[in-house]
Amino acid sequence: MEYPRPQLQRPEWLSLNGPWRFTFDDDGRYGVPSDIEAWPLTIEVPFAPEASASGIGDTGFHKVCWYQRDFEFRPERGKKVLLHFGAVDYLAHVWINDMLVARHRGGFTPFSADIGHLLSPDGQQRVTVRVEDDPEDLEKPRGKQDWRPEPHAIWYYRTTGIWQTVWLEQVPETYVRRIRWSPHLERWEIGFEAFILGPIADELEVQVRLLSEGDLLVEDRYRVIRGEVHRRIALSDPGIDDFRNDLLWSPEHPRLIDAEVKLMKGGEVIDSITSYTALRSAKVHRDRFLLNGRLYPLKLVLDQGYWPDTLMTPPSSEAARRDVELAKAMGFNGVRKHQKLEDPRYLYWADRLGLVVWAEMPSAFRFTTRAVKRLMREWTEAIERDYSHPCVIVWVPFNESWGVPDLTATQAHRDAVHAFYHLTKTLDPERPVIGNDGWESSATDIIGIHDYDNDPHTLRERYGPQVKPDELFDRRRPGGRILTLDGYPHRGQPIILTEFGGVAYVNPADESHRGTWGYFRHDNLEQFEKLVLELIDVARGTAMFSGFCYTQFADTFQEANGLLYPDRTPKIPLDRIAEAVRGQVEEGALHWEST
Questions:
Q1: Where are the extended beta strands (E) located within 41-122?
Q2: Which residue segments constitute the domains of the chain, with CATH numbers given?
Q3: For residue range 488-532, what is the model confidence (pLDDT) as tens digits?
Q4: b/e string for 250-277 if b means 16 or more Cβ within 10 A?
Q5: Beta-mannosidase-like galactose-binding domain: which residues (predicted)?
Q6: Cα–Cα dist 110/106, whole Å
């Protein structure tokens, strides 16, 4: 799955990844491509210049940089040509043959431009990109990108410029611009929406075919009205649960429904795409999370989504697939993608192989009007991009009050969390939303608790059956923060331990790991294993929790608190982790003495 947009695929596309001319412009001297006299560097797109895989590996402060590439392309007569960017951090200007065609603000979401009218008839084309990305700007969504010259604590190297695929596709004059899938399990229906761009004729129709493992489920045609189609596709209800379950999507049974969507004009196919969806529901009921209407304990691992040589960019689609496979091999049924909107190819493999994903907005770290506007625009784009992925089951606009640091004292900060919560529920009424994960909860469907106490015995006493939720919220202060804001007591929502663990193993023989960071460090691998597995066992076995999320999937730069090393080599045998996650460890095998 190298196709950069897995849920709307066309056969005709061209990747523009590979070597591009490149230069830094620290003084901002250049305004248009013709100003640049020399291109001293070559960069391998889509890797950021800070990444060693880019061929540059410059982690210094650079506010502006430029890209340029020549390519050969002759469009077909009567076709439009769309130039797509998966993600460019942060403000991008794009020229085709020295004509400005696009401007986009936001480092994690895609954008595109119609460039066919600007292409040279001789087939020789040139694309130029200017990127502004102030490394010290704390008002933009940046997630884990450090604002200091070198990574410190839990912050990592910056990602400047292009970091996801650049590609071309040809489309007809009238084409399917966007589709959206909305499963409605209670009615055994799948909502389908199509948005058509271009001249709209009266006889336009959309044909939809849904197939499950080759078996035809649905074949319908719908008239295009004012450039749109909105339909609920009713499936034949198999009746008994055994047959129903065979069609439902879950991590244990990731059944996808393949889709063929054709735009028809007078009976002739003018645009054809392939897609997929799934029948599943993700909801909360009282104090529990439900998947497909059944209690479903969430067993998650926090995943930063970084690789040593490529930073936020997956080295390949196979690397993204391998991360999904490793999470499942460790017994987890999901990941909490932390402070990053993940590459759609990762979401494709999570859909295909079966892994639930919590989608979290990368934070800005100042509270200003401009920061809120930037967050809201990019969060809206993120929901639109990932809405149809079956694996995405929870939206998280804020984490640990980052960007809204004065929730207990400032009404505007509380209003921001409430605004994002209700905006998210408006754009997607079908998924749970956590307004602010970790502490200081108010508007939320799930209360997430972050607790990095490294003593399993203490955790067991703190959240055990002898503790009532009301007592917990009255007295517990993880990170020195209250769990719920005054006026927003626990209303019976599910409680999930959304961060815990964070135990760093530092190999004494590896000098490169000296001075690494973690909530608690251990130099003895055997004791590290016992502690990690008992912490997981406590979280899994605590009845108060509807799930847990262990920190973290893999070591990430100076953070050595991963279950895997940065190259994804396990620190602990995968089957041992899986036994603890699934609750299959023999009694007494995890005994650990606190020191």
A1: 41-45, 64-72, 79-85, 88-89, 91-96, 99-105, 111-114
A2: 13-171 (2.60.120.260), 175-277 (2.60.40.10), 297-582 (3.20.20.80)
A3: 999 999 999 999 999 999 777 766 555 578 888 888 999 999 999
A4: bbeebbbbebebbbbbeeeebbbbbbbb
A5: 65-146
A6: 9
